[in-house]
Every structure is written in structure tokens, then in C-alpha cells.
Amino acid sequence: MTRTSLLLPLLALVGCPNAGSRTPEVIDVRHVSSAGGSPSVDRVVDMGSGKVPRQGRLDLSASDGHAVIGELLLLWGSSFGKQPSVTIGGRAADVLAHVRGGGIVVRVPWGIDPGAVKIEVSNREGAGSTTFPVRRLALVLDERGLQPLELGADGSAKTAGGPLPLPGAQKLAFSHDGSVVYVAGVAGGKVKLWIVDLGAKLPTVVGERTFPGTRLVDLETAAQADLGLLVSDTHLVYFDNGPMLNPAFYAPHALPAELVRKQVLAAAVGGWGRAVALLLADLNQVALIDASKPDTLAEPLVVDALPEARLQVVDDLRFSPEGRSIWVLGSDTERSIAGGYQTLQLSLLQRSGERELRVHETWKLTDEHLAAPALALARGEPIPPGTSIRPEPSSSAVYAPAWPSDLLKEGFAAFLKQPDRFKGRVLRSSLTDRAAQVVAEGAWLPTSVDVVGQTEVMLALGLAVRGGRPVRVLVHGVAWRGGAPRITELGAAPEAALRAKVPWLGEVRAQP
Questions:
Q1: Phi-psi category of 102—alpha, beta or left, where left has phi over 0 and alpha has psi -120 to 50?
Q2: Which of 323, 363, 431, 475 is a Cys-bridge partner for 270, taking CB atoms 3.0 to 4.6 Å apart?
Q3: Which domain holds residue 31?
Q4: 111-148: buried (b, 16+ CB within 10 Å) or exposed (e) per residue?
Q5: Cα(325)–Cα(361) distance, rounded to whole angstroms?
Q6: CATH number for position 74
């Protein structure tokens, strides 16, 4: 072989703008050349989850040829310049770093639809674009562990690997960007939280923490901020999930005796992460807590959410996207059914100051006697910092799984004998359209619901009967498309859960 033939591959490598891309190096923007024309995007490399260093080399070991919501991307190309603008799936993505050799690092924004997503880089001279495959993961958490599924913009769902064993896990919540999921439960008599990286080639546990208490109440994160919240039977724990894979946990706060006595049922985090709300069974109340100083526990502001109710009927609560309102769901419950049928209703509470919370309006969803154990809320559009916020969530819509209240009296054994008699449904309501609309209905009983994406893909985890045997099913589809939803069987339902009046079949959540 001649010297010339040996030099040709080497010269080609030196001339390539992606030379050294196996260990790309972050550089200061002041060392980046000005754009010499329209940008050209030559290649995209997915980088997994986490944060980008201010300097040093990037780790590309997590690259698998596609990205998930919230994952980092390295865009190789030319003529990006010092201040390029980037959109992914039509939504803005911040430039997190510049890389030697003609590269920039961005993060896949939440809220986009999955698929072959368009990535565009522009400057004053023009724009260049390419496409890259982006997936949205849905997660089913049950006694077997965490089962990932790939969720399509058309409502399709397919298995994306085997379950990740997490014995005792009960609740899950996503980091603010969607690239990491926090899972909490009780194992060995202790309340635990697992940190699971979704940007890895398969969901992977990268950390674990133990907290005071013997029973988990709830685990929640804010939609528009970095604050997270874990509530046990004895304590409340704030955590900052800005560093997604390494969240910072504040010292646990003992729950005030008044709240413990009233029984905390559920929690929500909102108001740009500066407030938490706890749902109290006794007197159907909401306790609002200022979380702007998470190293201390502010005095709770307790108000009646359903002042006309005489029994314990509250089920769940959620902050609206703009963070100044709280939705509260009330229906027949295991605690109230002995006193007779109650109204299925929504109550909207609004904040008018740091220490003011009042019922804006309460309305009946339907004349049917239904139990609705949970509440879901589409996350809404990402809100850039500094944007003025509407005081009234007129465009917000909430979703709830529901089934006939008679099941609370007869038990789920009655459904196993006569599944066609007890039809489940997913309901939708809003401040502008109060009457409940049926999004999906069938001979299955949903216990957990989530709604995600621009197309509002609906997921419901529930119970069905196949060949006389109880099975767990995932009901899924586009919420507004109409027609029968798709049903995916997820295996046999646990017999122990079916002995309860309200069985725990698990939770379903999807990346935002």
C-alpha cells in the first residue's frame, strides 16, 4: 500500500466536521465562529438524560439511534453561529452547549408528537433541517414492576422491553422534562423512592432513597417547574428535580397533627412549583402550603373544597396548567357509600393571593351514580418564563375514570360474574363544557388515566374479563377521534387486589 493511499482516509477524517465525535468537547460560545451562511444539519446523535457540562467532553455511551421525550441531542453541522434558534417538532429547544467541530446540544421538548420529528436550526442567513426518530414512553406500574410501552401520536401502544422489577412500587411521577421517572412505594416496611433513567437504552434504576413513614400517600412533580413532593403517612418531603438524575432532597418535614388526623388522600404540586395542595378526607378539605422555601414547612391554609357535601366524597385533586387553580373531584367512595349515593362533581378552587383560596364553582358532571377514583389533566402548552398567566383556566380539561357506584356495594366479584352489567368509562369536563363527555366506554373498569401530547392521547389502565378470567387491560386512543378505543391486554389481574372494593391495579403515566 502506498503512502498516498494511507493518507487519504486520514485526510478525509481530518476534513470531516464530525471528527472526534466519539468524545465531543464542549467549548465556550466565545470560541464559536460566526455563521457563514445558512445552517446545515448533517447528523444527530442521541445522548441520554442528564445535564450538560459547562466544559469538558460529552458522554455518548447511551446513544441508541433514537430519542425519547426530554433526551439530549447532539446536532452536528455547519454555519450554526453563536446564537442559532432550534425547533424540534415545531417547538423551541434551547441550545445548551456548543461543541468543537461544529455541533450544538439541545433537549427534546415535552409536548411534541412522536415519530420522525423535524429538527430545524436557523439563523439570520437561513435555516437547515433534518429528521430524527423520537419516541414517547408510557409506563404501567403494577406489582410486577415498571412496564414500558411506546406510545404513538395515533393512540397506538406497543411493548418497549420487559418490565423493570420494583417490588413494592405504587406511585410514579416524571421529572419536569420527562426524561426521568421517579417511582415510590413501600419495601421492607420502609417508604422508598427509585430514580429511573428513561434516556438509557432500557429504563434503568440509577438511584434509591429511603424516607420516614410506613405507608406511601402520594408522589407528585410540578408540570412547569422543578419541584417534587413525596408524602408518607407521617412526613412530607420536597425535592428539586432540576438535576433530573440526581435530585436534591430537602430534610423531611413532619406532617402537622391536624392533617394527619384528617387523613391525607392525595397531593398536587403547582403554581410554578411554589405551592403544594393536600386533599383531606375529613370535611372534604384542601390544605394549601406555600413551597417557595422548601427547607421549611409553611403553615397550611385549609379550605372546604365541597362545602355542601356531608360525607367523605373527595377522590383526587390537580393543579391547572397555569398554576393558580385547583381541580377537586368528588364522587361515591368506599368511605361514603354506606350513607347512600352521592353526586359525581367537580370543584374548581382559585388562588387570589398567597393566603387566599376559594371555591370558584362546583358543578355536577352527570345524573348517573358513578365512582371516580382518580383525576387526570392534560399538561398543556409549555409556558416560557415571563409569560403572563391567565387567572382562569377556561381552556383546561380534566379526565376521570369512572364506573357504576354499585360496585362499591357489591364488590368487584360482581363485575367478574356480569361484566356487561358494569360498564366503565373515561369522562372529560372543563369550565366551559361542564357536563361530562364520555371519551371511552366499554365492559372494562378503568382505575387510572393519563392524557398526553398535542393530539391528547388517552390511556386508561383497568380490569376486563376474558374467558371468565380477570385480566389487566390498557385502553388507549386519541381522546377526540371518536369510535371504539383500542384495548391491549397486559396479563392476569392479581387476585388479591380483586378482593378489595377498590382494587389497586397499578398506575399508567406517559411522558408529557
A1: left
A2: 323
A3: 3-133
A4: bbbbeebebbbbbeeeebebebebbbbbbbbbbbbbbb
A5: 11
A6: 2.60.40.10
Asked if residue 75 is part of any domain, the answer here is yes
Residue 465 inside a domain? The answer is no
C-alpha cell at 12: 478525509
| Nearest Cα residue to 455 out of 106, 19, 113 | 113
- Grid coordinates given for 243: 438535576
- Spatial neighbors of 163 by CB under 8 A, at least 6 apart, are 144, 145, 146, 147
For 20, 92, 105, 107, 122, the CA distances from 39, given in Å and listed in that order, are: 21, 16, 15, 19, 6
Provide the 8-state DSSP code for 247.
Answer: P
Task: Identify the DSSP state of 294.
Answer: T
441 domain residue, yes or no = no
Q: Are 396 and 430 in contact (CB under 8 A)?
A: yes
Within a domain: 261: no
Q: Count up the domains in the chain and report the number.
A: 1
Going residue by residue through the chain, which has 512 residues, state the pLDDT in tens, using 9 for 90 and above: 444 443 333 333 333 444 444 579 999 999 998 888 999 999 999 999 988 888 889 989 889 999 999 999 999 999 999 999 999 999 999 999 999 999 999 999 999 999 999 999 999 999 999 999 999 999 999 988 999 999 999 999 999 988 999 999 999 999 989 999 999 999 999 999 999 999 998 999 999 999 999 999 999 999 878 999 999 999 999 999 989 999 999 999 999 999 999 999 999 998 777 899 999 999 999 999 999 999 999 999 999 999 999 999 999 999 988 788 999 999 999 999 999 999 999 999 998 776 789 999 999 999 999 999 999 987 765 554 444 444 444 457 899 999 999 999 988 888 888 888 899 999 999 888 889 999 999 999 999 999 998 888 999 999 999 988 899 999 999 877 666 889 999 999 887 777 776 778 899 999 99
C-alpha cell at 497: 387486589
Amino acid making up residue 134: V
